[in-house]
Write a structure and sequence with these properties.
The chain has 145 residues and is α+β, with helices and mostly antiparallel strands. 19% of the residues lie in helices and 39% in strands. It has one domain: Roll (Hypothetical upf0131 protein ytfp), CATH 3.10.490. The chain contains 3 helices and 5 strands; from the N terminus they run E-H-E-E-H-E-E-H. A 5-stranded antiparallel beta sheet has the order 1-3-2-4-5. This is Gamma-glutamylcyclotransferase.
């Protein structure tokens, strides 16, 4: 049984969970089956306090990785990522929402994946006063003057 048939979607990560970023080793090392580059349309990254927020905006494109968890680690990883993102289903105070969106792989094929997007109140503040990450790539932010 593959992950999607069991209701176990991969994750699209775009910030501190990407390879080379500080949360990657803490949360993903040893728990993934695969990690591959991808992009997600319809979202824009905004700079946050040491991490980005993804906000739904039709013209945006964000670069990140499509992460498939090891089947035996899926439940533990899902819970750990929800805690990291302070996501509690149905809680209006959660800064993020975990939603399903399409990711495009480098080869052009699509996959459905979980992604953490800024919750509505956070997204509204960012649209009004936030600073977008140029090019939609969190890794590149350090190289942009």
């Amino acid at each position: 049984m593959n992950a999607t048939h069991a209701g176990r979607l991969p994750f699209f990560v775009y910030g501190t969970l990407r390879p080379g970023e500080h949360n990657h080793d803490l949360f993903l090392r040893g728990r993934t089956l695969s990690e591959e580059p991808g992009r997600m349309g319809g979202i824009v990254l905004y700079d946050g306090p040491g991490y980005p927020y993804a906000v739904e905006e039709p013209a945006g494109v964000v670069r990140g990785e499509l992460v498939t968890a090891l089947p035996e680690a899926y439940g533990e990883l899902l819970g750990a990522l929800d805690r990291l993102e302070e996501y509690v289903p149905g809680d209006p105070l959660s800064p993020y929402e975990r939603v399903v969106r399409d990711v495009t792989r480098v080869d052009g094929t699509a996959a459905r994946a979980w992604v953490y997007l800024a919750a509505p109140a956070v997204a509204a503040r960012l649209r009004a006063h936030g600073r977008p990450v140029p090019g939609g790539d969190w890794r590149e932010r350090r190289r942009t003057p």
